[in-house]
Amino acid sequence: MKAFLLSFFLIASSLGSINTVTAKDIIGGLTLKENFALAKKFPMPSAWLLSAQCSACHGTMGTEFNDIIPPLAGMDKQEFIDRMQEYKTKDANQFIVMGIITQPITDEEIEAMAGFFAKLKPVSRSQGKVPNDVVVPDWANMNQGAK
Q: What is the domain extent for residue 84?
């Protein structure tokens, strides 16, 4: 019984120290206001470097990987800006990932990224075969084992 009570009190006391994360909090413990103030103190990274953060979902240089995630390469500059501003200004839960990702990005950075992606040649990988210069490793072959 003593072990149970001790465990109960340890768990209960630790619950009181949990901080609730709000939509205004971002990684690193900065609020959006603090993030933007800090960003103004340093030179803006290149558009190429800024766009690299999109590659995890939108592919290298903004090329799409599937039909759900739109390609950024070749997207009209104003369309990119409009979409990013919509993600940024609406309730983050409406867009989940993009609603969260766009919050710390400044308007100046969005404009730079829009110009960068607009100049790239669009490449769609979901509508056909992978381009010849792309080598898909064996571990990534979705069809392996399905014969």
A: 45-126
In tens, the pLDDT along 9-63 reads 445 444 444 444 454 555 567 888 888 888 888 888 898 889 988 988 888 778 7
Identify the CATH number of the domain in which residue 67 sits. 1.10.760.10
Q: How many domains would you assign to the chain?
A: 1
Distance (Å, whole) CA 101 – CA 25: 12
The vertex-10 CA angle with 9 and 13, nearest 5°, equals 80
Q: What is the pLDDT of residues 47-59, one digit of tens each?
A: 888 998 898 888 8
Partner residues linked to 25 by β-bridges: 31
Q: Are 123 and 131 in contact (CB under 8 A)?
A: yes
Strand segments (E) across 43-84: none
- Residue for token pair 């409406």: 94
